[in-house]
Amino acid sequence: MATKVKKAAKKAAPKKAAKKAVKKAVKKAPAKKKKSARKPNAAFMAPLSVSPALGDVIGGKALPRTEIIKKIWDYIKKNKLQDNKNRRMINADAKLKVLFAGKAQVSMFDLAKIVSKHVK
Predict the structure, then answer these.
(1) pLDDT of residue 3
(2) Does residue 53 contact residue 99 with C-beta atoms inside 8 Å?
(3) 66-71: long-range contacts at Cβ-Cβ below 8 A with a sequence spacing of 24 or more?
(4) CA 101, CA 89: separation in Å to the nearest integer?
(5) Which residue of 29, 45, 84, 117 sits 20 to 30 Å from the alpha carbon of 13, by its own alpha carbon?
(6) For residues 47 and 82, what is the distance between their CA atoms, to the nearest angstrom?
(7) In this predicted structure, what is the pLDDT of residue 31?
(8) Which residue has the higher pLDDT, 95 or 16?
(9) Nearest to 47 by CA among 56, 59, 35, 30
(10) Average confidence score pLDDT of the chain
């Protein structure tokens, strides 16, 4: 019986060594991913000309789409136009009502669709 125990111990040792080798290989893989850096998409950075209705809200100069959305949100927060009960809805004031095609309230998820109609 003693010989069977020794054989079992000998079989277990190589398995542990194999697991250590696998762990080392896994640790080396993420190091390769850090070398490749993401580049921003140039299409998002391209300045777009805005319509006169959108220009009243954010200013008349050409801006990238990301900056246009930021400026609209700054305007909404500055004038407290976000609905108090349902924070996803934006209440329109006189300037935004023209932008929102006469609607008194729009969803924040529709904001990108509305902006796309007012830029070139």
Answers:
(1) 59
(2) yes
(3) 68/115, 68/119, 69/111, 69/112, 69/115
(4) 15
(5) 29
(6) 27
(7) 53
(8) 95
(9) 59
(10) 82
State the pTM of this model: 0.64
Residues 6+ apart with CB under 8 A from 96: 57, 75, 76, 81, 90
Q: Which two tokens stand for residue 101?
A: 């095609």
Sole residue written with tokens 């976000």: 82
**What's the CA gap between 42 and 72, in Å, rounded?**
22
Q: CA-to-CA distance for 90 and 76, rounded, in angstroms?
A: 8
CB 86 within 8 A of CB 72: no
The span from the first CA to the last CA of the chain, in angstroms, equals 85
Residue type, 28: K
pLDDT of residue 52 exceeding 90: yes
